[in-house]
Amino acid sequence: MKNILIVGGSGFVGSNLVNILAKKKEYKIFSTFFKKKKFKRIRSVKYFRGDLKKQKFCEKITKKKDIVIMCAAFTAGAKIIEKNPLEFVTINTQINLNILNACKKNKIKKFIFLSSNVVYPNKKTAMKEEDVNYSFFKKYNNVAWMKIYTEKVCKMYNEFFDILILRPSNLYGPYDKFDKLNAKVIPSLIRKFNNHKKVEIWGDGKDIKDFLYIEDFVKILSLLIKIKKKYLVLNVGSGKSIKLMKVISTINNHFKNRNFYFKKNSPKMIPVRKINTNKLKKFIKLKFNYNLASGIDKTINWYKKNN
Asked: What is d(CA 250, CA 227) in angstroms, rounded to the nearest whole number?
């Protein structure tokens, strides 16, 4: 039995990953949380509460672990990123370095880091793993550099343990942040359509993204854990390009056609972000259980029940 530590197990990706991995008999799951007191806990999982900015805590939680999955991150929506972009750099860099150093000290076997698709240049083509050229969408510049820096540091630590770096597409689903300040595009739209009869939408609805339901993502991650590779960087996405207008229409249909309008002078996201998943397909057979309609429907139902 392998001991797996999910760092940030009370967050969006972490909660969903704990749910999946805790069902597998070959793993003993451990998880961390910071201040969040109300979150779904699984009886078979051992939880550690503490501050990842403290090196001693990071060393404590990584002892006798085989695999460490870094899901913890300080995140927020487009508005906060635009107004205070440096806020992400210090905290995320510190906790990533603390965990990596602790993993080295405790001689773990594998480290999985969740990077981001913001590391790619602002282009209309589907991004491959090797397309990083250190040119980023301007408003995500600091976030992108923080992710790239951590990827480079992971490469340095590859001398001591195996490294798997994942660059997810735009994830959405249960346990995401739906509040006004921190919600990303899909949870933000769901909250607005649920709470207002007349909905303000940022932008013009023409943005193109690769959206992936969180349950499909964590199932892919659970398969990749078993891949034996010293160092590997992979995109994880649906491989499909979807206009934001389709997302808006899908959500609107669920709420029986609200009135909505576009606010074009609002904080902007990356206008086109397509993800190439050909490399991923070389390692696993991609099978998705949710399309956009079913994923959004399940997300809305979860939001109504839990918020």
From this structure: 36
Q: pTM for the full model?
A: 0.93
Do the beta carbons of residue 71 and residue 7 sit within 8 Å? yes
User: pLDDT in tens for each of the 307 residues of the chain?
Assistant: 899 999 999 999 999 999 999 999 999 999 999 876 677 889 999 999 999 999 999 999 999 999 999 999 876 555 555 666 676 788 899 999 999 999 999 999 999 999 999 999 999 999 999 999 999 998 888 889 999 999 999 999 999 999 999 999 999 999 999 988 788 899 999 999 999 889 888 888 899 999 999 999 999 999 999 999 999 999 999 999 999 999 999 999 998 877 888 887 777 788 999 999 999 999 999 999 999 999 999 999 999 998 7
Handedness of CA 215, 219, 225, 230 (dihedral sign): negative
User: H helices within the chain, ranges in order?
Assistant: 12-21, 55-62, 78-83, 87-105, 141-157, 185-195, 214-224, 244-254, 278-281, 292-306
Radius of gyration of the chain measured on its C-alpha atoms? 19
Domain ranges (residues) in the chain: 2-306
- The CATH T-level fold of domain 2-306 is Rossmann fold (3.40.50)
For 43, the token pair is 């009886």
Q: What distance in Å separates the CA atoms of residue 233 and residue 164, rounded to the nearest whole number?
A: 6
Q: What are phi and psi of 260, to 5 degrees?
A: -140, 160
How far apart, in Å, do the first and last CA atoms of the chain sit?
A: 37
Using DSSP, state whether 60 is helix, strand or coil.
helix
